[in-house]
C-alpha cells in the first residue's frame, strides 16, 4: 500500500479547523495523515458565537466546535499550545516550540489575523502595557471590558470609522458618553462607501451625536498612567478618558515571510489557494491574499476551506476559488445602511445609478455590469434590500427599468405593509403559523442564517413563499454583520456543491445510486434530507442507467399515490387532457363504491381523485380501474388542463383538447425538479388558464399557438412569459419538450418554473431554446424524447411489486411476546 | 442500545428477520394497543420508535431515513432514530425502544 501523504495545518481557529472538518468529510483521512498546530491549549471554538456568550444565550462550553477528544477520534495529531517557529521548504518540515518537528507533503497556513494598532505615541507605558482606558476592540468579547470601563467614563475617542468602530461608537453613545470617531480615510466606512454615501453617513452620524473627525489620525495619546486625551494630526487636542482602537486587522504573515513565501498584505495565493511561491503550501482565511484581497469575514474563510478540502481530498481536485462576494450591514440606531459588492464603476461600460437626498439622509446607488448587479449602497432607506441581496448573491436577472432597483416600493408590494412595521403577533408563515415574534426570538437566540431560522421555527418550510419576509426580518434583527449562508447554494444539504458541480462530480465518479453519491461525496452515511433531491437528479443524469434505490424516494413515489394527513392515500387515474369516456366514469364509480372510498373529488387539474384508500388496497384499486397512473403525487409533469376547443366552442381557434392530449401523452410522468402543471386554451379568452401554468399554450387567429412558460397561481401568482409563437402542434411539442429538458437539467431541486424562468430570464431562455445560441437544442430534443420513450406506468407495479412488502403497511402483527 | 435482559414487566418482541424490511425503509408493527415503527438503515442498523409523530400523528414508517434520522412524511420534522429527540425543530420527541438483532437475524425489541 502506498504510504499516506501528510497534511500539516498551522492554525486551529475557525479556518484551520473548518478545513480539517471538510477534509474528513471527503474521506481525506484515508489519504492523509493530518497534523495540526494551534497556539491555544484547547480545541477550537466558534469566535462568532462569542457575542452570544456575552448575551447569555450560549454557555461557553457550547461554542467549542471540537473538543480535544474529537482530534483523537479522527486520528488528527494536534500540537495544542505549540507555536510553529520555522519552515524548511527544501526538506518540507515545520519546526515548533520545544523541538517538535513535522514533515509535510502539503502545508496549510490558517494563521488568521491580529488587530492593527496604528503607531501612536503614548498609548502604552514604558513597559509596553496599554495605559488605563486604552482598549483594542476587534471581537465582541473585547466589548465586555470596554462596556464595564465605560460606565465610569465621560468622553471616548474611537480610532477607526469602519463597521466595528462605528458599532463601538454606538455602544458608547448609548452608555451616555461623548463619542469622537477618528478616521484616517476621507469618510467613515471607506471600504464600503463611495464619497457621496460617506458624506451623508457622516452627517447622519453627527445628527445622532457621534462626532466624526475624518481625513486625520491620532498622533499621540496624552496622560500619565491613564489616558487623558489625544493629539490629532491636525494639531487639535481632544480630551478623553477612554481610547478605543478598532483600526482593522493585519494578516499573520510573519512565519510565511520568514519562509520566503510571497507576502503582501496577506500570503499571496492563486485560484488554487496555493502560494504563488510554493505549490505545496496553501493559505486560507484571514492570512490569505487572493486577487489582491484579504477578507475579514467568516464566510469567505469557510468557502476557501471547503474548496481546498475538495482539491486535496479528491472530491473535486480542480475546484478553484474565484473570490467571495460580501455584504455589510450597519445597524446603528438611526442609521440604516446596506453595502454590497463594489462601490464604484470599474469601467465606462458599467451602469451606475445614484440617488442622493442629503436633507433626508438618503443615498442609493447600484452598479450593474453585463446585466448583473455587482454593487449597491442603500443608506437611510432599506426598502428593497432583500431584493438587492438576492440579485447580488444569485446573479439573478435585473428589471429592465434599472430604477426599479432603487425604488421598488411602487412596483413591488402595493398595499402590503413592510414586514419590519407589522406587530410581533403578525403571522409571517401562513403554512405553519409562525409569527414575526417567534422569528425574531429565533434570531435573538443566535440563529443567524435563513436556513437556521427556518429549521428552528419551521417558517418557510411549507410552501416557502414567506422566505423573503423571513430573510428581511433576519437582516433587520441580526446584530452580526451579514454573511451569506453558503448552504443556500447547495443542491442538497449534505453535499457542499451547487447543482452543476454536483452533476460533474456524479458523472466523474460514475455514481449511479443515491447511496453511492452519499458515500462518495457526503463522507458516507445516509442523509435523510438529501436522498430525495439526489434521486431526482440522478434519474435525470443517468436516465435508464440510474440505480433506483427505492428508499431514496419520497413515500408517494414508493407507492405511487399521494399520502394524506391520516396516512391514507389518494388515487388519481390518468385522464388525458381532462377528456373522459362514459365507460371510464362508470368504472371509477364502481371502484369508488366497491372500496367504500370516503370522498370522490373533481380536482383543479380536471381529474377525478379517490381519497382515503389504504396503502394495502392500492394495487387492487388500480387493477379494478384498469387506467394508468395520473402522477398526481410526484415531482413530474402532472396534468394538461384544456378548454373545450374548436370542436364545440363557437370562439375556438384551435383544437385545444387534441393538442392537450398529445402533450400529456408524450410527457406524462416525466420527472422534473418540481411539479409541472400545463394547460391548452383554444383562444385568448384562456379558459384553461394557460398563462398561469408552468407551461401553457393559447391558440390565436391564424392557426398559431402562443407558448407561455413560468406562470403560477398558487402560493405565488405570476403571469407566464411568452416563449415563442409557433405554427402547429408538432412545434408546440418540440418547444415544450425543449423547455422541459432545459428545466430538468438546470433548475434547482424544488424550484418551480416561475422561480426558474425569473432566475434565468425569458430573454436568455429565448436565446438558448429558440435561437439555439448555445447549440444545445438538438441534444435537448434528443434527451427529452429518450426520457419520454422510457416511460413506464408505475401502477404496473401493483401486479408486480419491486419488493414483497412494497404495499404493506405492517411488517408483522404480533400475537404474543417471546422472551429472550 | 442493547437489550441485556428482559426486566420484570417488560416484554421482548421478536419481529422476525430484519432482511424482510426493504433496505433504508421502515414498516409499522402493531402489538395490542402498541404501535411502533421499525427501521432498517442501509448500514445494517435497526431502530424502533413510536409509530406516529408527536406533531400531527404522521406515520413515521412511511418517512425518509438517514443513518440516524427519520424525517416524517407529512411535514418533514426530523427525529433522532436512536434517542427519539427532535432534530432542528420544536415538535417534541418520539419514544425509542431498545432493539437487538439475534443470531438468526431476527429483530428483538424491548417494550414496556
Q: How would you portray this structure in words?
A:
The complex is a heterodimer of chains A (820) and B (112). With 820 residues, chain A is of the alpha/beta class. In chain A, 30% of the residues lie in helices and 22% in strands. In chain A, the strands form eleven sheets. Chain A has a five-stranded parallel β-sheet with strand order 3-2-1-7-19. In chain A, strands 9-16-10-11-12 form a five-stranded parallel β-sheet. Chain B has 112 residues and is mainly beta. Chain B has strands spanning 11-17, 26-31, 34-40, 46-50, 64-65, 69-71, 78-80, 86-87, 96-97, 99-101, 106-111. In chain B, strands 2-3-4-9 form a four-stranded antiparallel β-sheet, with no helix packed on it. In chain B, strands 5-6-7-8 form a four-stranded antiparallel β-sheet, with no helix packed on it. Chain B has a three-stranded antiparallel β-sheet with strand order 1-11-10, with no helix packed on it. In chain B, a hairpin with a 6-residue loop joins β6 and β7 (78-80). Chain A binds chain B through residues 432, 455-456, 458, 461-462, 515, 525-532, 549-552, 554-555, 558, 563, 565-567, 803-806, 808-814, 817-820, and chain B through 3, 5-6, 11-16, 20-25, 27-31, 38, 41-43, 56-59, 61-67, 69-71, 73-76, 78, 88-91, 108, 111. β39 of chain A pairs parallel with β2 (26-31) of chain B.
TL;DR of this structure?
Chain A is of the alpha/beta class. Chain A is built from 26 helices and 39 strands.
